[in-house]
Amino acid sequence: MSGANIAVSDFFSIPNSLLHGAIAPPVPATVSFAVHWGGPGTEVRLRDTVNGFVGDFLENSASMAWSASSAGLLYQSGSEDESVSVFAEVGHERNGRFFPQGG
Questions:
Q1: Are 62 and 89 in contact (CB under 8 A)?
Q2: Cys-Cys with 38: which of 29, 61, 81, 85 at CB 3.0–4.6 Å?
C-alpha cells in the first residue's frame, strides 16, 4: 500500500484535531508512505456474537517508510530496510448494523 503527496491538514496536536482547529487553525500539509506486508501470515477468524463483531485477518510482519511536509518543514522516517515490525495485521471486519445476525 502506498500514497504520495496526499493533501492533509496539520492540526499540530490531537486535542486541536479533535476540536476541529478550535485551539489553532490547521495548515496545509502533505504525507507520503509505503507499506509492504510479508507473507503468507497466520489466518485469524473472530466471531463475537455478544459484541456483534466478526472478522477475518492475517497476522504478519510489515515494513514502512513515510514522510510529511508541513509549514515548510519535512519529517521523514528511515528507509523501509531500517523499519522493525512488532505486529502487523490486515483484514476485513463487520460490526454494528453490518454484523450478520444469522449463520
A1: no
A2: 61
Task: Give the three cell numbers for residue 19.
Answer: 476540536
What amino acid occupies position 41? G
- Alpha-carbon dihedral sign for residues 66, 63, 42, 86: negative
61 neighbors 35 (Cβ within 8 angstroms): no
17-53 per-position pLDDT tens digit: 999 999 999 999 999 999 998 878 899 999 998 988 9
Q: Could you report the per-residue pLDDT of 58-86, keeping only the tens digit for each?
A: 999 999 999 999 999 999 999 998 998 88
